[in-house]
Design brief:
By secondary structure, the protein is an alpha+beta fold. The protein has 2 domains: about 1-85, Orthogonal Bundle (Multidrug-efflux Transporter Regulator, Chain: A, Domain 2); about 90-165, no CATH class. The protein has helices at about 15-25, 30-35, 60-70, 75-80, 90-125, 135-150, 155-165, and strands at about 1-5, 15, 45, 50-55. β3 and β4 (about 50-55) form a beta hairpin. α1 crosses α2, α3 (about 60-70) crosses α4 (about 75-80) and α6 (about 135-150) runs antiparallel to α7.
């Protein structure tokens, strides 16, 4: 940490942008982006070198930014939360909305896992799949359609016939 002295920051410890970035294991470019977005701003910029300096207190704000980002909030949402002065009710609603988004994503992923399990079960029990390498391209395609899309087999059958004609 470096002590920088000027008229506005007399005897305060200021951290260079690189030190702040290293502390959070993020890039200097990311800190500059957060600055450009208006989420965090340096406490002081050296007019000669252009170096940006931050106070240790600002690390709390940057820590909150990084945590919210990890939770899936966009930089615009984070700016609104950290800088916009959201009310308790508004912040609560944003958290509920984000939680609902994560639950929806979990449900989508679980549906994909269930589908893969179902396909795997059909593959294991399929006698035709034992000769997969020996099948013609058309037979292999039809088998894969049957394994993957059992629910809509009539629709798949019509599509398959149209494709292979």
């Amino acid at each position: 940490m470096e002590h920088v002295r000027n008229e506005t920051t007399a005897d305060k410890v200021l951290l260079k942008i690189g030190e702040v970035a290293d502390f959070f294991n993020i890039s200097v470019k990311a800190v500059r982006l957060y600055e450009k977005k208006g989420i965090i701003e340096p406490k002081w910029v050296d007019p000669e070198s252009g170096y940006r300096y931050y106070t240790p207190d600002q690390l709390h704000q940057l820590g909150a930014l990084i945590e919210l980002k990890a939770l899936g909030f966009s930089l615009d949402e984070i700016k609104d939360i950290l800088v916009g002065g959201s009310s308790k009710e508004t912040l609560f609603q944003k958290m509920q909305d984000k939680m609902r988004n994560w639950h929806n994503l979990i449900a989508m992923v679980q549906n994909k896992i269930d589908a893969i399990e179902s396909i795997s079960d059909r593959l294991v029990s399929s006698k035709e799949a034992e000769k997969l390498k020996e099948l013609t391209d058309e037979e292999r395609a039809w088998l894969l359609v049957k394994l993957v899309c059992v629910e809509n087999i009539q629709v798949q059958s019509a599509l398959n016939e149209a494709i292979w004609l």
